[in-house]
Amino acid sequence: MEPHEEKPIIYTMENKPIVTCAGDQALFTSLYNSLTQQLPREPMEWRRSYGRAPKMIHLEANFVQFKEELLPKEGNRALLTFPFLHIYWTDCCDTEVYKASVKEDIVRWQSLLRLHSTTDWLIVVVESDTKKKNKTNILPRTSIVDKIRNDFCNKQSDRCVILSDPLKDSSRSQESWSSFLTKLRTLLLMSFTKNLGRFEDDMRTLREKRTEPGWSFCDYFMVQEELAFVFEMLQQFEDALVQYDELDALFTQYVLNFGAGDGANWLCSFCQPLRSWNGLLLRRPIDMEKRELIQHGQASLLDLRSYLFSRQCTLLIFLLRPWEVTQRALELLHNCVQELRLLEVSVPPGALDCWVFLSCLEVLQRIEGCCDRAQLEANCSHTVGLWTYATEKLKSLGSLCGLVSENGPNSEDLNRTVDLLAGLGAERPETANSLQSPYKKLKEALSSVEAFEKHYLELSHAAMEMYRAIGRMRSARLVGKSLAEFYMRKGDPQRAEAFLQESLKSYLAEGWALPVAHTRKQIAECQKQLGQTDEYLQTSALLASDTHLTDMERKHFCQEILSFAGQTAEGHAQKVVLSMNAFAQLRQLQFRPATAVVHVGAALELELSLRSLMPVPVRLEQLAVSVHFSLEKGGARGRAGPGGGAGNRGRVGQGQGSPCGTVLFPGESPPGALPRSQPPALELYEIQDRSPSDGALNSAGVVCKNVHLLLRRQDSSASLDTPSSTAVAVEDGAQLLKTHDVSLLPGNNNILFTAPSREPGTYTLRQLCATVGRIQFVLPHIYPIVQYEVYSQEPQLSVEPLADNLLAGLPQRVKFIIVTGHYSIKRGDALQLSNSDAMPILSSSGCVARVLSSDSELVAETTLSMQSSEKVTSVSLPLAPPYHSVEFQLEVQCHIPAGPVRPESERLTNGEPWHRARSRQRTSSGMSVVDQKISIDCPWSIYSTLVALTFYIPFKAKHLLLSSGKRKYIQVCLQNVSDMNFHVSDQQLAERQQSSSLWLQSLNAKAKQLVHSKQSVFCLWEVKWTCEPPASLQCVFSINFCPADAQRSVFTPYYYEFQLDNVSTLYSLSADIQPAPGEQQCRTGTLCGLEVSIVRLAEPSDSEQQDEGPVETGGFCTTKLMYEVVDNSSNWAVCGKSSGIVSMPVAANATHKVRMEVMPLFAGHLPFPSIKVLKYLPHNAPSTIPPDTDGCVENDNISLLDKGLDDQADTSSIRSRGSVHSLGGGSEQQQRGLPMPRLEPFGPGQVFNRSQGCQVLVLPSKDDHVLEVNLT
Amino acid sequence: IELKFHYTVHTSLDVVEEKVSAVGKVIVDQRELYLGLLYPTEDYKVYGYVTNSKVKFVIVVDSSNTSLRDNEIRSMFRKLHNSFTDVMCNPFYNPGDPIQSKVFDSMVSSMMVQTC
């Protein structure tokens, strides 16, 4: 009935809160089953103190028979054995019986309870109908309850409940049960709250005393654990866990404080030397052995930790949080190791490793035991840490016990092993049957080399596979690497290498320089053992150049290479080809000359800057650059000359080609400096945001289009350059640049090569190869591409003026440039210049030729010797090697041609566009030009070179015939059109055909005159004659000039020829203006008389007869003249006929007078209106002038108006200039087509106007009337 | 010893990646930069921090150093991050070059001195 009654309380999870039962045991027994079943069925809300969240709990209880011993004695705080509720059962329904026995029984029970100050009790009165029927004369049943309530429950009526018909299945019974259970639960909880609260208070008090001496953690541990047990009992695992965690934290804090020098006495017991290290034990819910040790204060640190963790583990598994177990386990193991260190507990070597190893496996197996396979695999990330930790520990155990070495353990190792195994103690009974128990595993692993290897590999591979499975490749590789170390110690480099290479790959890819160096060192060891010579040497080279290693190590590896290189090759062993990357870096290439374009045979030097990465100087037997040769554009360059090379210059090292011919190689920085790829160039675009309505600019900006590329984060750091040790092939370059016996010092070395330049073409540098004994270091590609070009060039001659433009008439210097190209000027070579009369070559003795090398360095200066014969001037050239240039200057003088110079426009026909362009520029300055051609025979060619030179004539001359009555003057205007200033002197005018009848009297200054640029000088001569002057006069004007700034004034003549026609004066005109009759002066607005008289001065001449066709009229020979009075300045209004025809007898002193009326329009001194006289030729007269010459149209008014008038009477219209009769004009134009008389102007000087420049005073009119003449 | 640190930090990147990708799935924008303890070893505790642009900081603390709590580590990372940002903002700094800033250097060493 009460199965637990007699048993000792054992600490299992079957613990339930104890409820005692007193009173009618038979009654209780009958109800026991349904009670235990129904009690946990419904949850109750448990409100808790200290603000802890209320919880719903399912209550269970262990009902035991009430005994006095069960009541806790004073001071006993055991909670597990604590009866939380006491129930008194009775089914008494008889008042008598109640009074007789039950009441007494209850009183006794109550007094017992009170003695132990327990207030948690309940009286249950069970009613049943069967009993009622037996006794019919019963009191109302409530009376018993009332009595009990009256007797015992003063003010606590709820301490007495009725359970009616509990064994019947009726609704009333159900109801009664449920209210009973609720009451029971409530009271139970109340009891919990009260008792636990009190317990917690006590516990806290105890904890507060922890600073007092004599306080023991172990005692406290037991107390708090009691609480944890109760929570566990109440299925409140979370709360139970909290208790343990609190204990854990408290202990940890003590240890830390101890470390900080604040030791507590009780801790000393944990500082005992470690004697047992038998791992965690997680298979029991409660490890009683350890618990007892703690209880008695005999536990070691590991014991306490183990126990604590096993409890935590148990609770976590109850809470279904196995992954937290693994995490906590790892923390615990690390922590324990630290704590042991901190507490300075003496630990035999390896003991801790054993403990950790066992614990790891124990935890893992415990977890495996409660999870299925899929779950385990999904949560590798939680367990893998333990696996790795176990692996590490096993490894260190292995090396400790001499199980890793090739020879196996020695006796010392064996002793150590025995000691370690002793510390494990005997296997625990729980695992004794399991073959895979951690205990057995460890024992086996330590038993023999083979077993150890088996277990170690098993663990390593398991850990690696888990890491791989969860994507922790780096961790997997680290395990692999440690596996490799194991293999190395086992003398199995083959397997080790694979792991190492994999690790190396990842370190390289992610740029971890230090691990790279370390791993490489291990690989080198592997390769050495494996006898992989090439690989070993390559690795050694890498290591020797690795700055992360010590100097000693680097030298060692360098020595390895050198000693191999120094071995004499056995048989026909090939040279070992290694990549140069590790050995040295090509930093810079520099061509000399910088353009990297040279002519055939020229010296081209190539300076190589090689940065040796070796720690010691290395002697290279040979350093060679293989060159690829292609004919590409080699021949085509022929005449391009050095200038053409400029276009190709960009090819020298594309991109980074600097104008100084230096090619920089991207700084492959030493390993470890983390190189980075060049970021892409910015692509920027303009962006404009215009408002849609009016198109106004809202904003403008710059947008980078490739932001995503630029701002993309490059992961950590770019990888270290992986040298491709494979595929380093030596090209059999046909051409090689070589140097021998170079000593390569650490750091930068400059090595000079002479590049071959025998063939024209393009040479591309391909490979760099350094030979050290049997080893060749090869740089397979030189990138960026480096090229140089060799060209061949034809000789060339060019002639250039020294000045901007050559001036004719003066000695001018002309520069001759000979580019020798491939031709070398030999002794006796000369230029043959064909002479021309117009441009003699002035041989000056001090003519110096300069020989320049192709890069414009002066090589030699020699004096030229020139020989002139009639036809040819020969200039002997100085000796010059090929691809040089010879420069010299010659003086030439172009004579100014005397005759009328071609107008400039004609010159344009010579067709060379640049000439045209030039001449057009010159037209503004109005310079005339002379082209001169020289034909030059060059020694290298059978053809003559024709050189055209253009000379500019610095002067322009104009002439003018001036008359004064019959006297004649010739004025010559000399205009300096050049940019120079000149002195002029000795101006002379002479007749072409010397005739005695005529002489020219100079009216000029004798001294020399200065003519500034763009200015003119005027000269005047009077023409005098004895007899009649000829109709046409041909004159030559000459003047001497020399540059104003010349040291020696060597005057050169300038000639100007011109012809004058109709020199003599035929008519004299005179005009007179008379005021109106009766007036003293002319007045505005009044008509004045204008009298024009035309007087014939000269006798008729023969030429005149022919020309003008005089008409015989009345025995007189007359010519018709037309006069015209025109006032161009609107001063006068001509009234009446302004023009007319007069017939002049062809005889001297024949006079004709014409009168007309003019009206002054303004007051003041008015110039006379101008009067013109023209020849009037009848329509049948032979035309000497083309019909539509300017003469006709010279004055529109006349030709238009007066043609029609012809012989008619005068029109009386007032004509003034501009007042055109448009109506009349239309009709008159019709007559244009008809044959009509022509007007011809007289030549200059034929008509002399005496009254030219005369003025007449006009007074304003008396009345204030202002005459307004509207002028249009 | 430095070598060991390199190996440790290198391996810790595994966990960083794992954490970053795990976090990335949950909330993208408002994530905590501090990754917390990456993984403990017997001798060291490795803490991680990843900036929004995936720059990773790792602090390795001796296991026996118990004075540093999570919060201190976090503030150390913040300081480190700020200082790092300053370095990156320097217009004369070329992204990718090794950091040579004296300020950054002194900040880091002051942090080291403080914790020791």
Automatic annotation (TrEMBL), chain A:
Residues 903-915 have a biased composition (Basic and acidic residues). It comes from the Eukaryota. This is Trafficking protein particle complex subunit 10. The gene is TRAPPC10. SUPFAM superfamilies: TPR-like (SSF48452). Residues 14-325 form the TRAPPC10/Trs130 N-terminal domain. Keywords: Golgi apparatus, Transport. Residues 796-951 form the TRAPPC10 Ig-like domain. It comes from Scleropages formosus. Signal peptide: none annotated. GO terms for cellular component: cytosol; TRAPPII protein complex. InterPro entries: Ig_TRAPPC10 (IPR056917), TPR-like_helical_dom_sf (IPR011990), TRAPPC10/Trs130 (IPR045126), TRAPPC10/Trs130_C (IPR022233), TRAPPC10/Trs130_N (IPR056913). Residues 635-677, 901-923, 1207-1240 are annotated as: Disordered.
UniProtKB/TrEMBL annotation, chain B:
Pfam families: Sedlin_N. InterPro entries: Longin-like_dom_sf, Sedlin, TRAPPC2L. GO terms for cellular component: perinuclear region of cytoplasm. The lineage of its organism: Eukaryota, Metazoa, Chordata, Craniata, Vertebrata. Its main location: cytoplasm. This is Trafficking protein particle complex subunit 2-like protein. Belongs to the TRAPP small subunits family. Sedlin subfamily. PANTHER family: TRAFFICKING PROTEIN PARTICLE COMPLEX SUBUNIT 2 (PTHR12403). One of its GO terms (biological process) is endoplasmic reticulum to Golgi vesicle-mediated transport. Keywords: ER-Golgi transport, Transport. Transmembrane segments: none annotated. It is found in: Cytoplasm, Perinuclear region. It comes from Scleropages formosus (Asian bonytongue).
